[in-house]
């Protein structure tokens, strides 16, 4: 073969592989300071570097963002002057274009989740204690919510719904104010209450976020006030608690509020964030019994880690440090699950990371 022809064949492959090293990372922020909305970075999957920061779209307090299943649309909620959920179209250059916006049917929307089919979205309204379910159109636009659940009850503690997740025909909702994990079931396209709490949660731990295994057999709830993780197993008749573990180092005695929780890609490890101790707690998980054992607390190299994520390769964990205006990048040891700090990058009030 002519050497020139060989070069022509190889060069596109080299360019393709180099391009594939970078993937977009969208960052939701609070806009009370220097931030203007949702930002986009390029993330290098080989080095863990973030580069080419750009404002993807200007919007008030996009404190939680998520994709549609086909990743063509991003949905954002935020505790702004108007309690709304907004849909944005992803453009080829990575910027976002407004599609439409609708009322979240409650004050202080703080979390949004889309079902596997991409035809429904659920919004958790922390301030109002309500959960709204909206239909989604083919172009990603949002319809008015046909169902709104209000967890408030007269004479009881105010409800503060903090996160919700669809799973097949199930919908689970974590209510930090009522100390419950509600369970709703889909029936003839309508969600109906299955249980006010899948387990009895004692005291006032404040269940905030939760992570579910791929097979749906185990669930891990991070408790904001309790500095702990509650492990839950699915049974033939419902759910049962199997474990309860502190997220804090035994020598730490200061104030703390837990925030986010994620399983590793292979589900052998579990990670949770501590605001106050300013750390990520690392747990080794028994994949058979579902129980966990803490093996590390590592500094987030910043202040107030509200949210974190694991990149699609499973090699890096990235932390959004709200008060120190930085995103910290950690290497994940695939054998032990432990983290080692790599580097950090400036970002204005980052609070949600989306690959």
UniProtKB/TrEMBL annotation:
Q: Name one GO molecular function term.
A: 6-phosphogluconolactonase activity
What GO CC annotations are associated with the protein? cytosol
- Which InterPro entries is this protein grouped with? Cycloisomerase_2, Haem_d1_sf, Lactonase_7-beta_prop, WD40/YVTN_repeat-like_dom_sf
Q: Which GO terms describe its biological process?
A: glucose metabolic process
Instruction: For this UniProt record, give its keywords in alphabetical order, as a comma-separated list.
Output: Carbohydrate metabolism, Glucose metabolism
Q: Which family does it belong to?
A: Belongs to the cycloisomerase 2 family.
* Protein's name according to its UniProt entry: Lactonase family protein
